[in-house]
C-alpha cells in the first residue's frame, strides 16, 4: 500500500478524549477521494501535473507534490492546458491539467479543444460545484454544468460521483485520451468527492492500472498489398510526413522507409526533423513542385485539411492526376476530403513495419528523372534563400534574424524550438532546419496564438533539453505572464521576441486619427524588461550578430532569458503566408 492510502482517520476524533492505544490499533485504515485520485494517477505513471490552484483542488495539488508528483503551477489555466497537451504529444502519455471550477475550467477548455483538434492526448481535470445545486441552478459558488459544456469539445468526458469509482474514472480518461486517435478528455471531480472516506483496502482494490493503453493496430494484408501495389506503380511518388508520424515515435522505421524506398518526402511543420531537413530525400525546398507534379502520395499521419489545401485545387496540379495512400489510426479520416485509393488504417509504428517488409527485391525504385527534377528545384530555391539570410542589417528584417537562429539550431540540434506568430511563424518554419524528431512545436492545426509559454515550459520540464521559443510580439502577449513561471522553476528557456511593433506589421493607423491602428502596439516596447522583473536575463538586440550572441549565451547558461529582437515594422506581410484566407470587403464605403 502506498503512503497516500495509509491514512488513519477517526470519525469523531476532535470530540473525543485521548484514545487508548489499543483502540487506535483497532481502527480500520481509511483513505479518501484526494488520496485515491493521487494513487490512481501514480499507479498509471503520471509524474507531472500542470495547473492553477484554488477551490476545490488546492489541497489536491499540495498533496500531489507531497506524494512526489511534480506540480507546475501556472498563472493562467490556458497555458497550463497547453503545457499538458504538448507533454502528451512529447511523451505519448496523457498530459494532465488541473483547474478549479467554472472560470478556471473554461480557461483550460480552449487548450483541451486545441489538444483534441491536434490529436494530442490530454486530460483536463477540473473540480466542480455540488451537483444538487448545479442541476437545480440554485447559484452555487462557481456554478456551471461543466460536463455538458466540455462534451462537444473533446473526445470523451466523464464525471466521478463516488470515491470508489475514482480508479475506473481515471482509467477511462487515460484510455480515451491515448487509444485510437489521441485527443483531449475531460474528467469532472465534484468538490464533495475529495472528502469521501473509504476503507483503505477497498480503496486500493478499486484502483485500475491501464494495461496496453494504446494497443497496436495492424492493417489487413489485403490493404497493405493494395497500398504497396499502388506505390510500386508510381512514377513520381511522394511521402508526406505529418505530426501523427512524429507522435508515433517510430523514428527509425520511418527513416528506413524513406531511405530504402528512395521516395522524396516533405514534412508538415511539426514533423520537421523526423528525418533531418538537410536529408538528400527531403523535398521541403521544392514543396510546390512535388505537390503539383507527384502521381502517388503516401500520407503518413497527416490530414488533408486546409494545411494541404484539402488535397485538391491548383496546388495539387491537374484534377485526377493524383492517387493517395493514407496511413492513419482513425478510419473516418479516409475520404474526408478526396478519394483515398489505398487506405491503411492502423498505428504508424505497425503500418510502417509492414510496409518496410514489402520494400524488398521487388521494389522498382524511384525513376531518376523525378528525383533530378526535384533536386534542381531544391538547389535553386535554397540558393535564393541563402542570399536573404546572410544580411547583418539593422533594422533587422525577418530573414536576417532567422539566419542567425537557423545557425543556432544547426549547432544545437537537440534544442526544442517553439514557434508562434504570423510572419514569425511562417518564415521560421521555412528557414530553420530541424535535425531531430519532435523538436519543433508550434501552433498546429488551428494556427492558435498563445501556445508559446505553455509549450516551452512543458518541453523543458518533460525533456530537460534547452528550449528556444521564437515568438511574434503579438503571439507572445497571449501567454507572456508565464515568464514568471519560467523564472520560478528556473527553466532553460530562451524566448526571442520578433518585435515588429504589432500583428503582421507595426505600421497600421486609425484613419480617423483617434486611436492607435488595430494591429499595432506601443512602439519600441522592451519585452526584455519583463524577464528582468522576475530575476531572469533580459537582452535587447538590433542586429543578427547580436541576436546570435545573446541566444548562445542563454543556451550556454541555461538561465531563463528573454531577447527583444527589434524587427523593422515594415518587414512583415498581412497574415504571413496565409493572407489569401483573409476575406476582403468589396463594398466601397459611402461618403
Ligand atoms: P499535420 O498537421 O502535421 O499534417 P495532422 O494533425 O493533420 O498532422 O494529422 C495527424 C494525423 O495522425 C491524425 O489524423 C491522427 O489520427 C493521426 N495519428 C496520430 N497518431 C497516430 C498513430 N500513432 N498512428 C497512426 N495515425 C496517427
Ligand atoms: C487565439 C489571429 C494570427 S497571427 C496573430 C494573430 C493575432 C499574431 C501575429 O502577430 P505576431 O507575428 O505574433 O506579432 P508577426 O511576426 O506577423 O508580427 N487569436 C488566436 N489565434 C489567432 N490565430 C489569432 C487570434 C492571429
Ligand atoms: Mg509582430
Summarize the SSE layout with pairings.
Layout: H1 21-26, E1 30-32, H2 33-43, E2 48-51, H3 58-66, E3 70-73, H4 77-91, E4 95-99, H5 102-118, E5 122-128, H6 131-135, H7 146-150, E6 156-159, H8 166-178, E7 184-190, H9 191-195, E8 197-199, H10 200-206, H11 221-233, E9 237-241, H12 243-247, H13 251-261, E10 265-267, H14 287-293, E11 296-300, E12 323-328, E13 342-345, H15 348-358, H16 368-389, H17 398-411, E14 416-420, H18 423-431, E15 440-442, H19 452-463, E16 467-472, H20 473-477, H21 483-488, E17 493-499, H22 528-533, E18 537-541, H23 544-557, E19 561-566
Parallel strand pairs: 2-3, 2-4, 4-5, 5-7, 6-7, 9-10, 9-11, 11-12, 12-13, 14-15, 14-16, 16-17, 17-19, 18-19
Antiparallel strand pairs: 1-8
Helix pairs in contact: 2-3, 2-8, 4-5, 4-19, 13-15, 17-18, 17-23
The structure holds adenosine-5'-diphosphate, ligand TPW and magnesium ion (MG).
Ligand TPW binds at residues 421-424, 447-450, 472-475, 498, 500, 503-504, 572, 576.
> Any ligands, ions or cofactors bound here, and which?
adenosine-5'-diphosphate, ligand TPW, magnesium ion
Give the CA-based shape: globular
What is the name of the CATH class of the largest domain? Alpha Beta
Could you give a short account of the major beta sheet? 6 strands, parallel
Distance between the termini: 79 Å
CATH topology-level name of the largest domain:
Rossmann fold
Physical arrangement of strands within the biggest beta sheet: 3-2-4-5-7-6
CATH superfamily of the largest domain: Thiamin diphosphate (ThDP)-binding fold, Pyr/PP domains
The total count of helices amounts to 23
Residue-averaged pLDDT, rounded?
95
Low-confidence stretches: 1-15
